[in-house]
Amino acid sequence: MPSPITDHDLYLFNEGTHFRLYEKLGAHPGDDGDRQGTWFAVWAPDAESVTVIGDFNGWDKRTTPMAQRAQSGIWEAFVPDVTPGAKYKYHVVSRYRGYRADKADPFAFYAETPPARASVVWDLEYDWWDADWLLARGGKQSLTAPMSIYELHLGSWRRVPEEGDRPLTYREMAPLLADHVKRLGFTHVEMLPVMEHPFYGSWGYQSLGYFAPTSRYGTPQDLMYLIDYLHQQGIGVILDWVPSHFPGDEHGLAFFDGTHLYEHADPRKGYHPDWSSYIFNYDRNEVRSFLISSAVFWLERYHADALRVDAVASMLYLDYSRKQGEWIPNQHGGRENLEAISFLRAMNEEVYGSFPDAQTIAEESTAWPLVSRPLYVGGLGFGYKWDMGWMHDVLEYLQNDPIHRRYHHNKITFRSMYAFNENFVLPLSHDEVVHGKGSLVNKMPGDAWQKLANLRLLYGNMYAQPGKKLLFMGAELAQFREWNHDTSLDWHLLDDPAHAGISRWLEDLNRLYVQDPALHEGDCDPQGYEWIDGSNAEQSVIAFLRRSTKTPDEPVAVIFNYTPVPRENYRIGVPGRGYWREILNSDAAEYGGSGKGNMGGVEAVPIPVHGKTHSLTLSLPPLGVLFLKRERPEDEVAEVEVAEEETAEEPEISDLEDIPFE
After folding, report:
1. Using an 8 Å Cβ cutoff, are 390 and 382 in contact?
2. 3-class state of residue 23 by DSSP
3. Which own/partner pairs from 377-380 qualify as long-range (CB within 8 Å, at least 24 positions apart)?
4. pLDDT per position as a tens digit, 352-392
5. In this structure, what is the dihedral angle of CA atoms 318, 324, 327, 332, given to the nearest 10 degrees?
6. What is the Cα–Cα distance from 194 to 203, expressed in whole angstroms?
7. How far is CA 353 from CA 19, 346, 381, 399, in A?
8. How distant, in Å, are the alpha carbons of 191, 417, 579 from that of 203?
């Protein structure tokens, strides 16, 4: 067969609209019409020469030259008898300054395990068994669906101490992770970047393998098996993806052909001071094709259900982490990175156009407007955005000694002012438990009991608030130490009843969140949230309602007491009579609490409070949160049934055809 790259491919690539480049560039086993071998293709427009070197030619820089394809900047060669498993690189000799380097393949599907740096010829054939999941997943991650995400780092979730404390492989992890996530009740897992990266301590956020999963835990097919297994168990998979920057390792993308090919040439736009890494040149057509092809690749070939896009804020602002004089204004004199904005919009347009049931999620930490709004209204086109403001506010509030919380009441109420400006995910991510920040439980004040009670309050706040949920691994253990990527989580803590109680609390929060529409259907709809009382700063008590958008008259009332003082005979208003059943109480003994509650529920009385027609007199537990669900009286249920019957008896439009109208 001739080269797999057609003239039309070259045109689209140079135009910046080829979003399936992984089918053309890189290493592809095949034939040239006579012999079996592998086609190699690499983009290096300013190279004077490029040769393929590998274990099949003794890494000889003279044996296998590549030919440049017209003026496209692409070099290609067919090498006979090269089969999957062969290791290779490209030896690039630049036209400039005598630069030459051995480069890994930017489009490689597989790579040697670091610190080895060669690419590996590979095919991606795999027999998937997740068709049922793929057919249904759109309804499982829509704005009205419950999404509860378990974020994890594959290399430190569990380890094998009997074998040198090595990480689990992708295949070893599959049944263990699925069982754990299902028991806790999470709907999705989010993996810190699985893309190949040279430095393990970067957790994958310094990626170089934009088309290759890390070989530290197995082959590409092994990762496919893990995702396939999770899907078969009803668990969605979100992959972290990093189009914001990349490391400067010589074998990687930086200075690829002796020029700033992938990165912007001016360091004021092309070098990131925070991470000592390079920033992509989003204005270059071929770079846009490269990155959007990578996004599509993980959704298509690995069946990922969503991409969480890292460090979006750093892409949007030209002055991000820069002082005056260290950045270049855009053509209008502003600080907005117009090229990055255009890239993000194009990426989202292609993702949702090709995978309408997938999602993209922005880690965006500023007040940039319309991040999760459609392109046609001027948005960036993401499906969701992380709510970093909620995370900072709630953690700052809870770190205060309860006696001082009355002075910071706005931290716990302010979110209602903007909760529906975007489609939010509430994150308690890995970033909050590293770099000296301490674990979640150790952020909490008080003695050991109060720390755990405050932690239950934190999780209760997350699940009661509108928005999807994300927790980093170890949250279910109430782990005392910071996360360490070189060791396993402290699973032995579950032998302690107090820590096991935290795990049970999360299980029940997830169960209620998934099962009760009032707690998830309105996650992104203002109709899903209503204040009862947010003004009691003196006693640090707040109360609100969550409602289903389809059955709004079946709300859940949530009441928080953020002090260790029990509140007896505390009255709150509720919208209607009937029995309000206590469906969750963070102070229950099974969670490690003191056992203070309301004997299963409270009957509403016709005493108006907080602008509601009825009210409840409650016993509020110390450092506790109550979830109460209204059970409608029988006569009210009967009235609804009669109304539904009357509605059902109304004639259909088709029945009106013979009725004369004047």
Report:
1. no
2. helix
3. 380/341, 380/344, 380/345, 380/348
4. 999 999 999 999 999 999 999 999 999 999 999 999 999 99
5. 70
6. 9
7. 12, 10, 11, 44
8. 10, 35, 50
263 DSSP assignment:
B
Interatomic CA distance for residues 4 and 26, integer angstroms: 11
3-class state of residue 32 by DSSP: coil
- Residues with Cβ within 8 Å of 136's Cβ and at least 6 positions away in sequence, in order, are none
Calculate ∠ Cα 181-187-191, nearest 5°. 70
The residue ranges of DSSP E strands in 343-481, in sequence order, are 359-362, 384-386, 424-428, 468-472
Residue 479 burial by CB count (10 A; 0-12/13-18/19+): exposed, middle or buried? buried
Retrieve residue 442's tokens: 């150790």
pTM of the full predicted structure?
A: 0.94
pLDDT in tens, 585-624: 999 999 999 999 999 999 999 999 999 999 999 999 999 9
Tokens read off for 605? 């009385």
The letter for the amino acid at 73 is: G
Let me know: does 532 contact 545? Beta carbons within 8 Å.
Answer: yes
Q: For residue 546, what are the contacts with CB-CB under 8 A and spacing of at least 6? A: 464, 466, 518, 519, 522, 528, 529, 555, 556, 558
Query: Which tokens belong to 328?
Result: 């270049």
The two three-digit tokens of residue 26, written as one number: 């890189």
* CA torsion through residues 588, 594, 600, 601, sign: negative
Is residue 105 within 8 Å of residue 89, measured between CB atoms? yes
Q: How many CB atoms lie within 10 A of CB 73?
A: 19
List, in order, residues 6 or more apart from 356 with CB less than 8 Å away.
Answer: 138
| Cβ atoms 624, 593 nearer than 8 A | yes
Spell 497-532 as b/e; 16+ CB within 10 A means b: eebbbbbbbbbbbbebbbebbbbbbbbbbeebbbeb
Q: How far apart are CA 388 and CA 400, in angstroms?
A: 19
Q: What is the predicted pLDDT for the residue at 291? A: 98
Angle at which helix 220-232 crosses helix 170-184, to 10 degrees, equals 20
pLDDT, residue 659, reads: 34
Residues with a catalytic annotation lie at: 310, 363
Residues of the chain with pLDDT under 50: 640, 642, 651-662
The DSSP 8-state label assigned to residue 90 in this structure reads E
Angle between helices 285-300 and 7-15 (to 10 degrees): 110
Question: Which among 562, 555, 563 is positioned nearest to 616, based on CA atoms?
Answer: 555
Beta bridge partners of 42: 75
Give CA–CA dist 591/452, Å, rounded. 9
CA trace torsion 91, 93, 98, 100 (10° rounding)? -20
Q: Which domains does the chain have, with CATH numbers?
A: 7-120 (2.60.40.10), 159-361 (3.20.20.80), 526-636 (2.60.40.1180)
Facing residues of 49 across strands? 93
- Across 573-589, b (16+ Cβ under 10 Å) vs e yields bbbbbbbbebbbbbbbe
